[in-house]
Amino acid sequence: MVTRTVDLRSDTVTKPTEAMRAAMASADVDDDVLGADPTAQRFEEEMARIMGKEAALFVPSGTMGNLISVLVHCEIRGSEVIMGDNSHIHVYENGGIATIGGVHPKTVENNPDGTMDIDRIEAAIRHPNGALYYPTTRLICLENTHANCGGRCISADYTDRVGELARKHGLKLHIDGARIFNASVALGVPVHRLVQAADSVSVCMSKGLGAPVGSVIVGTKEFITKAKRLRKTLGGGMRQIGILCAAAFVALQENIVKLEDDHRKAKIFAEMVLTISDGLKEIKQFRVNASSVETNMVFFDVADPSVISPVSLCETLGKFGVLAMPTSSTSLRVVIHFQISEGDIHYALTCIKQAIQEIVAVGIAK
Ligand SMILES: Cc1ncc(COP(=O)(O)O)c(C=O)c1O
């Protein structure tokens, strides 16, 4: 019988804190589609200020934030956007920019650290001479932190260089900053500096910051005016969103400071998984590069999926109440958030050891 649950599937699984629930209950609200919700207005102004941009807009999800941003920058038919082949927009957002927006994606290989080589980005920009045949490049997208690359941070210097390239070619730069606060904390760089070169940024409040719902997009006033219209088109115009913004406000005020501790625990986790793996008498079970753990995510590869597959490991762990997510046939990930204690981490690690022994024993008995 499961007596304890340690949910490491994602940082989206946090439950609203008491302070968030209290703020939601007492939020001053009105109809935001009519532009009248005072809590939403205050929250958006604060987000614009923190991000160093002219204006901000609350949207229901990170996916909608990215979609709206891409569509605003690519409003002319036949537009193309350059993005990482392993980016969230490309891999996990249902191809919405193409299916809904008619925008053509052009991928460039992501390096293991989440960057794309600048010369490769430049080579991917369509030459205007080919306009009779080619789509027109209008936008470059970066992701910070880069989730599929293990939550790695993209530096301000790299972002600036991509911004310069974009300007040189008359393009815009959008950042999927679902976890930009994790990057800011890990790098020790203010968030507005990290996104200085970007024309727009989408920020999730419902990831490591722990709000129950919502993302914010930021950019110029003109960008946000167009974004607001698209939000309505996509069905994302909602009425008394002050309730959600009140919780997001608490997330902003109380939870940014907790991210550093999440990163510390993720490092402990990575290092201890290696110790467990080494300590078992079977062959080493996992490969994890602990030094590449920069924020709150730990991806590890199983050494031999025919002995231990990510799916079998996650299923067996589930029986102990430890929830993790397979990410491919050879890898799985755990994500730390502020509702995971150090005790939870030690419990999860004990369960991993037990799960491995169980799986290996069943395998031998077969
Ligand atoms: C990097 C990144 N961008 C965007 C999103 C989309 O956010 P949402 O799930 O709120 O649509 C996610 C979700 O996990 C993400 O990890």
Automatic annotation (TrEMBL):
It is an enzyme of class 4 (lyase). Its EC number is 4.1.2.48. Coiled coil: none annotated. Its cofactor is pyridoxal 5'-phosphate. It catalyses: L-allo-threonine = acetaldehyde + glycine; L-threonine = acetaldehyde + glycine. Residues 7-301 form the Aromatic amino acid beta-eliminating lyase/threonine aldolase domain. Gene3D superfamilies: Aspartate Aminotransferase, domain 1, Type I PLP-dependent aspartate aminotransferase-like (Major domain). Belongs to the threonine aldolase family. This is low-specificity L-threonine aldolase. It comes from Zingiber officinale (Ginger).
